Amino acid sequence: MHTEAEQDAEPVLGYEVKSRPVYPPVQKNSRAKYHLFVCQGDMPEAMASVVEACEAVGHRLIEASDPVTAVQQLQQVTPELPLATCAYVAGDEAFIWTVAEALGAAGMIPEQIQPFAPADRSRHVFCCHCYHITSGVTHTPAACAGCQRLLAVTDHFSRKLAAYRGIQINAEDPADIPEPMELK
Fold first, then answer.
1. Alpha-carbon distance 63 to 70, whole Å?
2. Does residue 163 contact residue 127 with C-beta atoms inside 8 Å?
3. Contact present, 105 and 95 (Cβ < 8 Å)
4. Average pLDDT over residues 66-71
């Protein structure tokens, strides 16, 4: 039997979301013979320090403003890369995981791909009702840009879609609209 204080201390959900990406600090992979850097827009400082550490060995930088351009450039570059290549990816979360998916399709394994922590906290949200992906979401609930339903943004992340799952929050009572909460 638990005391009232012990019951209050127990976690509400009792589990952690395993699909949400974790971004440990990125360091130069010393076993790699070649280093590929892919970033969205300007190179962040954290990536610049890893690039400096790789200047004595082979490396290449791809700067793209969007994931489609990055994937097109990767399709030209990846056939020429040595097997012992490490890729480092920086940008927003959707950019990171779209590039990681393209690198995987080109034959890289997850251990060869090091993502930096996302540049911002905004999320791409996949609507489980209309299958539309809404970009730039920073609060939950959020309106789906496709069907306009009010979605609860979950921490369940799809690497394939590079998006978090959104589920209609007020299906039973459309007037029941909770206070917005900032996503972390």
1. 7
2. no
3. no
4. 95
**81-92 pLDDT, tens digit each:** 999 999 999 999
Q: Are residues 150 and 102 in the same domain?
A: no
Q: Using one digit for the tens of pLDDT, what is the confidence trace for 94-143?
A: 999 999 999 999 999 999 999 999 988 899 999 999 999 999 999 999 99
d(CA 109, CA 19): 18
| Residue 166 belongs to a domain | yes
CA-closest candidate to residue 47, choices 89, 99, 103: 89
Residue type, 97: W
What is the helix (H) or strand (E) element at residue 67, kind and residue range?
Answer: helix 67-77
Residue 9 located in a structural domain: no
Residue 4 counted as domain residue: no
Give the range of the structural domain holding residue 105, as residue numbers without chain letter: 34-115
Tell whether 76 and 95 lie within a shared domain: yes
Distance CA 149, CA 8 (A): 34
